[in-house]
User: Fold these one by one.
Assistant:
Number 1:
Amino acid sequence: MLKTKKTSRFNLPALAAAGTLASGLLLASTAQAFTVISFGGASGEAMQKAYYGPFQEQTEAELIPGDYNGALSRIRAMVETGNVSWDLVEVESPELVRGCFEGMFEIVDWERLGLENQLIDAAVEECGVGTFVWSTVMAYDADRLDEAPQTWADFWNVEKFPGTRGLRKGAKYTLEFALMADGVPADEVYDVLRTSAGVDRAFAKLDELKDHIQWWEAGAQPPQWLVAGDVVMSSSYNGRIAAAQEEGQNLAIAWQGSVYDLDYWAIVSGSDHVDTAYDFIRFASQAENQAVYASEIPYGPVNPDAIAELSSEQAARMPTADANLEGALAMDTAFWVDYGEELEQRFNAWASKL
Amino acid sequence: MPRVMSATATEEVTGRALKKQLRQAERLKKIKALALVLPLVIFLLLVFVQPISTMLARSVDNSELMEVMPQTAAAISDWTGEGLPSEAVMAAFAEELQTSRRGGGLGRVGRRLNYEDPGFRGLLMRTLRRLPDEPAAAWQTVLPELDPAWGETSTWQAIQRAASPTTDRYWLAAVDRERSSSGEVQPVAEEQQVYLSVFERTLVIAGSVTLLCLLLGFPLAYLLATLPTGTSNLLMIFVLLPFWTSLLVRTASWIVLLQTGGVINGGLMGLGLIDEPLQLVFNRFGVLVAMVHILLPFMILPLYSVMKGISPSYQRAAISLGCHPFAAFWKVYVPQTISGVAAGTLLVFIMALGYYITPALVGGASDQMVSYYVAYYTNTTNNWGMAAALGSLLLVVTLVLYLVYHRLVNQQQLARS
Amino acid sequence: MALQPYASPVEKAWYWFLRIFCALVLLFLMLPVLVIIPLSFNGGSFLTYPLDGFSLRWYQEIFDPQGPWLAALKNSLIVAPFATLLSMVLGTLAAVGLNRADFPGKGLILALLISPMVVPLVIVAVGMYFFFAQVGLLNSYSGLILAHTVLGVPFVVITVNATLQGFDFNQMRAGASLGADPLTVFFKVVLPQILPGVASGGLFAFATSFDEVVVALFIASPAERTLPIQMFSGIRENISPAIAAMASIMIALAVLLLLVMEILRRRSERLKGEAAVS
């Protein structure tokens, strides 16, 4: 039993020494500067380049960038405790509507912002200012398919296009795509989904394809799968597909029936830096800065003037290009805010049944 | 006989004193032992139990309406639930709807009422927009004119359900139950039933992962504990290395290995063993492989640290007494490892119960576990009542399983000694 | 457990079966690690084979002194050791206490001590946020360390508890009767015997802190972003191959560290051996 001494390669005293050494760093953090929270990653880097850096240079304001995973819970906790350390956050539209209704975000004073007629309509919200447009599209590997699929009906057609398909694991987007595959025109999709017969219809359509679907969770997965040949076509965020194209992958996008949505800037209720936040939003909505962002990552600018500053190639990849908007569907945020939980639960029950 | 005590009396006295001393010593030992446990208990009560229990209490919390619309809540609780509520209720409601916009109160009520009916948030918004400051007639006629929903009994019943201080709706929902309009507990519609199967699935996955970890980990820990220290330390590096790579990295690399165009399928096809790629990931198989990989070290190390302390002489003695080596291993060695097996299975099982990032990334749509829904309700929809109910239920189930398990292991050990 | 020359064929078969089986398990453990290293040199931004040319761009990204990776690594290296140390001290004391004497409610206390592993992390995160907001521990290293201590402590309790099952507490009494004070008894008699348990528990606690993203995301500000937060950053669009580069570096460091420890151990054993001879 006393043999255990031999395992003393776990060096306890050394660990303790390192501990004491680092104890000098155990001080609470300093006073809060203007903090901007985005989704990070490639988009965060583009924001650093287009917005954070130049804004700091121009205004000499201190800006702390950070990122999160889109969780509303932290913002709610901050507002409930009155301990607001995030000033400006990038939020997706359902979270914006939900948070706005629940008083988590400041109501935007559009007059004070002075941007009213400069941005596309969808960018103007009660509690948020749109910052870019992104889209969930149908993507495929052009090298593997002889004929290009055009619509969601093609996506459902496993005889003509054999192989596995990728779809996002969840009700959002999936139900819309199913209805469009079933012949519902884009502008009627949400009217149909608001009826229980419409929901049944969407799930019935999904039943047809169930055996051929591989569900994805992170946005990184669909382009990865397309490149690796795991799926022949997949729904995907358009930004990653464009990035893959840039790297020489022959991935293609069918814009018909894509669902687009905006990410917004929202000021957290109770922030100490509301003035700076307004300055920042104004700065980040200028055409030239939006153009810098859009040339870094193919998400559509909300300031239409920015399109003019992009090359025609770049502009063609944007969800906001006229050709791409044809037959596209704007995500109905209010619908998902109201029916999201119920439909996600039903989706999960459906998915569990083999 | 004052001076001479009888021998038996002396014995009795000293015996009693001894017993007393023994009891005292025993009590002192207990106090000392408690004093060692106490710092951690206090720490956890303060930093863990207290904060978490306030969070878990939200699973029965129903205070939104009472706090934001106190008069409405008080007035409607007297309503019989038939026809339409009185003018007083409607007037209180109309007035408090007007003032609730401030400070996000309407949002809290709207969120709560939306659980009763998905259209409620929209109804409140529409009504608020058209609400007059002074009604032209009684609120009982004005409100239904603003929106026909206010003329329906079910709308007001929903408000009444939200008016009591506590609710069992989240707990019922967590086991696929709900209350009918007459207040009876009934199963939810079939296409909405999901959580019972999710709980079952969570236990099945965690159980399979634990079993697989034990099957793979026990022999390896045994070998590592019996090899010379130098060799076993070198091999131990292989066990410890996965620790230094993030969960995300390991999950990503299993996808690289297992996907249809991945390394393993490529290898098998290259060898001519299979003609078509196998579906190895984004299903239950992938979840099990990735989770076993991540949790295996949590089985191996406790086993190893217990096996390291087992003297080989008992087993040798058994063999020299004529016992078959396998029987000696099974009857003499294995029982001594029980505490390691107990610790390892406990760690792996409990950790497996809580995993959701890995199953989300390598599993199919039917492989999601309870924590996934807890995260969904907390982060995405802000339904903390539902998140707390699912989380509490998971906690209760696990702790009950643990106490049963603790008793079983203790009996094993008692039986052994 | 060397193979005896007089071993029967069955024992021989068992001997080889055990070794081959264990080699396969080790291969299983190493496979993902081996697969990820080449990917860190991938020229493209996908975590897939075949590689898209050789490139050091991901290493450049990580070692960029202005970049977020080094700062995140520093933060993790501040938080994890402290959380580990605290969990080890508190957890070991508690495990020793639990095994020294029988008292009522022991099962319940154990259940309490392991409960941080059971409560879903998101709930822990939200609950702690409210608590830390009250006591001013939000957005600080101290808060993060306390939170990770809570999460790490059950591992230490469980592993130390397991090693203590075979421990004879009369040794402590023997030590005390020979005149040693309780601290000396603990460090000279108890600790050496339960060290494997303490060490593996500590290792688990360290790994927990080093891999924990949910709670850290909640109670830390951008200034305290840890390595896992950095790794999960931007996962909505892209899993950056920089995580493969980071993983490769961590693996290299770990191998180096473990090898150096092993060499030191062998040298000290040899020195001891020489001292014994002379």
Note: The beta strands of chain A are 34-38, 63-67, 88-92, 128-141, 165-168, 213-216, 233-237, 251-267, 300-301, 329-330.
Number 2:
Amino acid sequence: MNLAEALGGAALMLKSVAFWLFRSKFEASETIKQSVKIGVDSFTVTALTSFFTGMVLSLQMGQSTKNLFNEPLYVGTMVAFSMLKELGPVLTSIVVAGRAGAVVTAEIGTMQVTEQIDALYTLGTNPTRYLLVPRYLAFLITLPLLTVFADFIGVMGGCIVGVVKLGVPSSVYFDDIFTYLEMGDFMHGFLKTYVFAFMIATVSCYKGLNTKGGAEGVGKSTTEAVVVSMVLVMVLDYFISALLVAVGI
Amino acid sequence: MIEIKDLVKNFPGRRVIDGISAEIRDGELFSVIGPSGTGKSTFIKCLIRLLRPESGQIIVDGQDIASTSSEFTLAKVRRSFGYLFQEGALFDSLTVLENVAFGLKYLTDIPKSDYPRIVREKLALVGLKDVEHLKPAELSVGMKKRVSLARSIAAEPKYMLYDEPTTGLDPVTTGMVKELIIDMRSKLNITSIVVTHDLNLALEISSRVAMLYGGKFVEVGEPAQFRQSENHEVKEFMEISHLSRK
């Protein structure tokens, strides 16, 4: 499949998602089910990733400033800045793309190769309405929430290393954060997650719907969806950051 | 009634359906036979617009659906169809009860509280009971096919499409599915279209049989007429199927 064909296909899919989002009855139970699958089930791995990222950030920052200035300085500020603006949203998106994105592609792909998508048409519903809209909503609801948790857990991980390993009092650690951090810094990272969520949903659903060739095809689509999503998270991260910096967020 | 006029369907590099015309009358059981890979499933998928034909007309109760782009028109016409997929196409994540009730939710205004009763009735009709709580992965191939049939008829369609209904089944289950197809027509008065490579099945259950070969219907007729056909492809297919012309 060439790039033009993929972009055209994705655009048609998005048009269909927009159409069914506003024209059909809200599939509440399916949206909740998908939110659990995408969000709740990704929580543990997201929490672990951000906790250890916060810890290693704290260790490296503390050690570097200790070497330069003889004491660990601004550890809380640097951990919080890094987590909230970049690592929280990016790492959470990569985890969600790898875990939940793969599940969505494999599930829709399997439905495609076993004619379950065709069966939806014959049973009076449209696959976009029943499958895609709830998954888009689930990604858009859960990824920003997971990121907020990841930010908090990462900062707490950094605090533990700061206190235990570096000897920074927790009051100093949090004072550093609240002195230098602004709401805009949090929003900078938080806003990105909506773009990432939308992109992961689009890639995962599109790859799933275009699966061909049985079990082998499902495996291929799933791998492609995860790789494309992860690369796009990185690429989009730079351009959104540049845009947000330009508008002063 | 379904009228098909000059239906053409291409796949990249080849023409699969090459100008088929036919008329499927209300209440009849029309079978399309032919060797594997001749486009039988393509034909049946075009009838319900799961595939979009290149040209031609498919007129279902006066409404041409071959070229329409309206989702609402298609959804409206599809409401009058039930479809038994070759592999069943049951939704893996749902239980048997949820699968069979699926069409009731989207195709009818029946209250949700009535679903369990209707599902039990439809399952009984296909010879199954106490399977409502099972997932498709826990069912045998034959059971899956019967659950799929129950799901297709739950919303009481006017037309029923069967895609290779006996493929992959043992002789006992094949006989059971055959009886079910006959029952659907006789008890529920459903107009049925069966695509199969099982000539024996087609000749036993159908009111008319058509042979698809080279993208065209090379022979259409009642089973008795069909057996006497002088068409080369029909004769060859009967010989391969070990069927006597008497």
Note: Residues 3-18+28-246 of chain A form one domain.
